């Protein structure tokens, strides 16, 4: 009897902890879902997608590096333990930074927002497939998780399409969006070996650094976007938006997201990406007075049920 009581208490504590991790993941995705407003305002002010990405990552990297030096001066390190691990960090910087953001933002120039959202937010499916291929032993994917992920994807599609089943195909734009989707899927699964050997702060700092470093070839091809005269147009509103994207959406959210992946696992954590368009719509309803439809509510139910099933193996 005492043993059963202890087991029940342990299960309850474990469930509370997992719910806490899920809540944190939701907050991160909600913030990322709101960034479209800040990015759109910066684009309207004349900044390019590459400039926005560069400024937000410079702010995030500088603040995180300063904090890391101050808090871990004795154990502060610049490089990984091996060249292989350093190349892993380069790949994370590319897939979670430079190429991902450039592909996603460029896709918006050639295809619709609906297509971009639908394609980019399907990355959990590809992450789950990659996990099943490369980590079958250490992080096996169950049938329940597959069903849950597919149901969550269906819910996300219902939310994005909003009752419209006709997609406007644009090969170039859709391929760019698909490239961004694959980038985030690869970033998610590569976080697993990285987190096994290094701290969340160190990994995030390296992601910011290599994300910025791999932007140099882009500016060599488009030197006009590196013109420092862009700073002359900055006002309080522009600075506020940039610092929000740099500090909140990049520095804090990337740190917390990498921590969530460590706690929940790649499949469960990445499934929260399905909430991205959902939180965007809620934000638009709150700020821009856009209407919430029945399709939104139906899609939300599918996403919540799918998330529950995707995590069922962990909490049963």
Can you describe what's shown?
With 316 residues, this protein is mainly alpha-helical. The protein has 14 helices and no strands. The chain is globular. The mean pLDDT is 80.
Overall mean pLDDT = 80
Strand content: under 5%
Shape, per Cα inertia axes: globular
Give the termini distance in whole angstroms: 21 Å
Structural class label: mainly alpha
Query: How many DSSP E strands?
Result: 0
How do the SSEs run, as a string of H and E? HHHHHHHHHHHHHH
Q: What's the gyration radius in Å?
A: 20 Å
Which percent bin holds the helix content? over 70%
Number of helices: 14
Query: Stretches where pLDDT falls below 50 for ≥5 residues?
Result: none
Largest sheet: none
Please supply descriptive tags for the structure shown above.
316 residues; mainly alpha
Question: What is the strand and helix layout of this fold?
Answer:
Blueprint lengths: L1 H43 L4 H23 L11 H28 L2 H8 L2 H12 L8 H19 L9 H27 L2 H14 L2 H6 L14 H29 L1 H5 L5 H13 L5 H17 L1 H4 L1
Helix pairs in contact: 1-10, 1-12, 2-8, 2-10, 3-7, 3-8, 4-7, 5-7, 6-13, 8-10
